[in-house]
Amino acid sequence: GLENISTYWENQPLEMVCYKTSRIFRLQSVDQVIQTIEDHLVQLSAMKST
Predict the structure, then answer these.
(1) Inter-residue contact 29 to 15 (CB < 8 Å)
(2) Element (H or E) spanning 43, and its range?
(3) Can you give the residue ranges of every domain in the chain?
(4) How many other C-beta atoms are found inside a 10 Å radius of the C-beta of residue 7?
(5) What angle do the packed helices 31-49 and 2-11 form, to 10 degrees?
(6) What pLDDT score does 33 carry?
(7) Alpha-carbon distances, residue 29 vs 20, 25, 40 (angstroms)
(8) What does the alpha-carbon distance between residue 40 and residue 11 come to, in Å, rounded to a whole number?
(9) Mean pLDDT, to the nearest integer, of 8-13?
(10) pLDDT (tens digit per residue) in 15-49
(11) Distances (CA, A) of 47 to 1, 6, 7, 9
């Protein structure tokens, strides 16, 4: 449940890359991050309703 979600994000490496030639960084691949966030939101909503 909540412990698994917390552990996942504590241990999830997020790859950052420099945006063009600036000193601004962005996530390299957001597709997996967004999918995981959506999955965890569904799990949290289910926990909230029980």
Answers:
(1) yes
(2) helix 31-49
(3) 2-49
(4) 10
(5) 160
(6) 94
(7) 15, 12, 18
(8) 15
(9) 95
(10) 999 999 889 999 998 999 999 999 999 999 999 98
(11) 8, 14, 17, 18
Angle at 25 between CA 20 and CA 31, to 5 degrees: 95
Q: Amino acid identity, residue 30?
A: V
pLDDT at 50 over 90: no
What pLDDT shows up at residue 4? Answer: 95
Residues 50 and 45: their CA atoms lie apart, in Å, by: 9
Distance CA 50, CA 24 (A): 42
Q: Which residue has the tokens 């289910």?
A: 46
Contact 14, 27 (CB under 8 A): yes
